[in-house]
């Protein structure tokens, strides 16, 4: 079942989302060559706690860190480690925060130092694909219209669409119904209603969209080792459109 949130629940989700957005803002200046992903995880963890929330992903299904940090060919669920970021890398930080039982979830891919133009284009286009999808969101539309807008934009820009990983409903659980795929047909799937809250999160690749899991049982990487980008916002569906709950 896809839940419609009450005014009260929406207020809590706004606060959770605000903390997620603020955590991204806080981390951004630290994303420089030489910092380890573990150090970024610690900064994020402490900031979320200081904001009066808890990190949603810590121990979620057994995940061993507070945020997911995925570098270059890593698509999602990278485990923070002693790996140092290098000039020219890209790094995805996926942050979830839980405030009084309600969650916000937002991933963003950042350049580290100076990245190659085609990699910057991957970042720009993946971010744009998120907003192409969001532009379709309003009460009464099929979810497939959102998915199709993301996929069409990706194809037009020669990027791979990861199919095995999808966005999701969100509320007092991080992952709720419905699945929000980044591919699909217009006029298909569940109908969005005002008061639904969903995380829309295209994951696009520079090469093949095929992925596999590393032996750590968490990190998902591209099969061809080419970079992947991931942009995600938690949004509230409204009568005429949407409100971003995780904005900066
Ligand atoms: Mg996320
Ligand atoms: Mg998510």
Task: Give keywords.
single chain; 248 residues; alpha+beta; Creatine Amidinohydrolase; four-stranded antiparallel sheet; 4 helices; 15 strands; 25% strand; binds magnesium ion
Report what the structure shows.
The protein is of the alpha+beta class and 248 residues long. The protein has a single domain (7-244), classed as Creatine Amidinohydrolase (Alpha-Beta Complex), CATH 3.90.230.10. The protein has four helices and 15 strands. The strands form four sheets. It has a five-stranded antiparallel beta sheet with strand order 8-7-9-14-15. Strands 1, 2, 4 and 5 form a four-stranded antiparallel beta sheet that branches. A three-stranded antiparallel beta sheet has the order 3-12-11, with no helix packed on it. Strand 4 (90-99) and strand 5 (102-111) form a beta hairpin. Helix 1 crosses helix 2 (37-50) and helix 3 (117-134) packs antiparallel against helix 4 (143-156). The protein is globular, with a radius of gyration of 17 Å. One magnesium ion (MG) binds next to strand 7. One magnesium ion (MG) binds at residues 105, 167-168, 199, 201, 232.
**What level of helicity do the residues show?**
25-40%
Report how far apart the termini are: 30 Å
The run of helices and strands is HHEEEEEHHEEEEEEEEEE
Q: What oligomeric assembly is this protein in?
A: single chain
CATH homologous superfamily title: Creatinase/methionine aminopeptidase superfamily
Task: Please identify the top-level CATH class.
Answer: Alpha Beta
Quick one: overall form? globular
Rg over alpha carbons: 17 Å
Bound molecules: magnesium ion
Strand order across the largest sheet:
8-7-9-14-15
Q: Spans of 5+ residues with little confidence (pLDDT < 50)?
A: none
CATH topology category name: Creatine Amidinohydrolase
């Amino acid at each position: 079942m896809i839940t419609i949130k009450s005014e009260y629940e929406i207020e809590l989700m706004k606060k959770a989302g605000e903390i997620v957005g603020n955590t991204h803002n806080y981390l951004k200046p630290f994303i420089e060559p030489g910092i380890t992903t573990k150090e970024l995880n610690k900064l994020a963890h402490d900031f979320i706690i200081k904001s009066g929330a808890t990190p949603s992903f810590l121990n979620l299904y057994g995940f061993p860190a507070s945020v997911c940090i995925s570098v270059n060919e890593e698509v999602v669920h990278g485990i923070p480690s002693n790996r140092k970021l290098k000039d020219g890398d890209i790094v995805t930080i996926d942050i979830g925060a839980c405030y009084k039982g309600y969650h916000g979830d937002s991933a963003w891919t950042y350049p580290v130092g100076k990245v190659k133009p085609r990699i910057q284009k991957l970042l720009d286009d993946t971010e744009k694909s998120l907003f192409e999808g969001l532009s379709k969101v309003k009460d009464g539309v099929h979810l497939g219209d959102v998915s199709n807008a993301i996929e069409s934009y990706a194809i037009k820009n020669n990027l791979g669409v990861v199919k095995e990983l999808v966005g999701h409903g969100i509320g007092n659980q991080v992952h709720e119904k419905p699945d929000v795929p980044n591919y699909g047909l217009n006029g298909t799937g569940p109908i969005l209603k005002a008061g639904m809250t969903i995380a829309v999160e295209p994951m696009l690749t520079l090469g093949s969209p095929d992925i596999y899991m590393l032996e750590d049982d968490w990190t998902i990487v591209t099969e061809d080792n080419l970079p992947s980008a991931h942009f995600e916002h938690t949004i509230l569906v409204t009568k005429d459109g949407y409100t971003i709950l995780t904005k900066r």
